[in-house]
Amino acid sequence: MKWKRKANRLPPASERKIIHIDMDAFFASVEQRDNPELRGKPIAVGGSKMRGVVAAASYEARVFGVRSAMPSVTAQRLCPQLIFVRGNFDRYREVSDQIRDIFISYTDLVEPLSLDEAYLDVTEPKRGPASATLIAQAIRREIFERTQLTASAGVSFNKFLAKVASDINKPNGMKVITRAEAPAFLAALPVKDFHGVGQKTATRLEKMGFKTGKDLLVLSELEMAQRFGKMGHHLYRIVHALDNRPVNPHRIRKSIGAERTYFEDVSSRQEMREKLDWLAEKIFRYLKKQNNFGRTVTLKMKTPDFVVHTRSRSFAGEIRTLPDLRATAYALLDENIDEVPTVRLLGLSISNLEREGAGGVQLLLPFDEEE
Predict the structure, then answer these.
(1) Model confidence over 298-310: pLDDT tens digits?
(2) This prediction's pTM
(3) Cβ neighbours of residue 289 under 8 Å, at least 6 residues apart?
């Protein structure tokens, strides 16, 4: 049967069919796929037994409580048999591009959130059935056939519900929330599971007696704003299923950056400069590829006792050469090395980009630097 397709356009909020695709333990799964000896074993991408943070954990490691952004030492304590794997960012981007090609074959309305997740608006798909549920199933199937990796999906009529739904039946699962099912679902949803509500805000809400969506439904939007400030308007719209945000294929990127945690503390100015050289080259290569340069350079320095220092410098025009970027990074380092003589992490980023909308994918991750 041939499906007639209209031009891909931004549909009214009342008509939208939104899919949120989230790859399952993406970085860890790629490593297990490419290294058969790691399959079925608890692995952590990034970090080491003594240093750094976990960038991603396999499901075998998650059973022990290992999570991304967790200090490696903590992860090792929770799971003594944990295997640490150095990340291969270029490989992850290559696989992510393969997955993105599948998305684009169904709709131009794709909003990437990172390398491993994205929103898709399939209200008027370029191919396939008119059903968002069937399209989500087809996309998951095609991802597996092409990459041998599994993905989970959430399907609904707005982004918030699709995002929450994709996490319900992980890994390798799918959840659909229809408009008729949304009120009961939102009423039962714990506030800690509200996407966009951080842990501190969730704890504060729970202490005030607001533990689920049902508890929030008794308040008017004005009362929520009075109690919770700016967040109150967001909570009101979310709990009433009024999330009208469109899927934006030109999601704004405000900065491009890279950072590395080192296996040993760095206290030599020359060694710090060498580390900054590596970061600057990585960033500049991406900027040049995108032809999108920025005016503000920020240096991030983390001390051995985890105190973070950031220093920035802005210019009237964009930094368009690697030597200029490197020289600015050196200057920021030299101006602050007396205050921060030893670091466990260095980071470098560029903001105030020419085109703050050129791609929404995550550029770099806090993997430990290979030595």
Answers:
(1) 999 999 888 899 9
(2) 0.74
(3) none
Task: Tell me how many domains the chain contains.
Answer: 2
Mean pLDDT of the chain: 88
Instruction: Report whether 156 contacts 165 (CB < 8 A).
Output: yes
Tell me the C-alpha distance between 151 and 145, whole Å: 11
Using DSSP, state whether 166 is helix, strand or coil. helix
Same domain, 234 and 261: no
CATH of the domain at 193: 1.10.150.20
Distances (CA, A) of 195 to 105, 109, 162, 176, 220: 28, 21, 10, 17, 20
Q: How far is 366 from 46, CA to CA, in rounded Å? A: 7
d(CA 56, CA 87): 9
Domain that holds residue 228: 182-239
Tokens 């396999």 label which residue? 58
Q: State pLDDT tens for residues 219-266.
A: 999 999 998 888 889 899 999 999 999 998 876 667 888 888 887 889
Helix (H, G, I), strand (E, B) or coil at 82: coil
Catalytic residues: 117
Instruction: Report the pLDDT value the prediction gives residue 290, as an integer from 0 to 100.
Output: 83
- Residue 90 known to bind ligand: no
Answer yes or no: do 347 and 259 share one domain: yes
Tell me the β-bridge partners of 298: 312, 349
Q: Which amino acid is at 128?
A: G
CA distance 194 to 196: 6
User: What is 243-306 written as a DSSP string?
Assistant: --PPP-TT----EEEEEEEEEEEE--HHHHHHHHHHHHHHHHHHHHHHT--EEEEEEEEE-TT-
Q: What is the pLDDT of residue 342?
A: 94
Q: Determine, yes or no, domain membership for 225.
A: yes
Q: Are 50 and 37 in contact (CB under 8 A)?
A: no
**Residue 368 known to bind ligand:** no
Give Cβ neighbours of residue 69 (< 8 Å, ≥ 6 apart).
53, 54
The answer as to whether 274 is a domain residue is yes
User: Does 173 map to a domain?
Assistant: no
Measured distance CA(259)–CA(345) in Å, rounded: 7
| Residues 226 and 273 grouped into a single domain | no
Partners of 343 in the beta sheet?
266
Average pLDDT over residues 289-314: 91
Residue 72 lies in a domain: no
230 and 260 part of one domain: no
The CATH number of whichever domain residue 301 belongs to comes to 3.30.1490.100
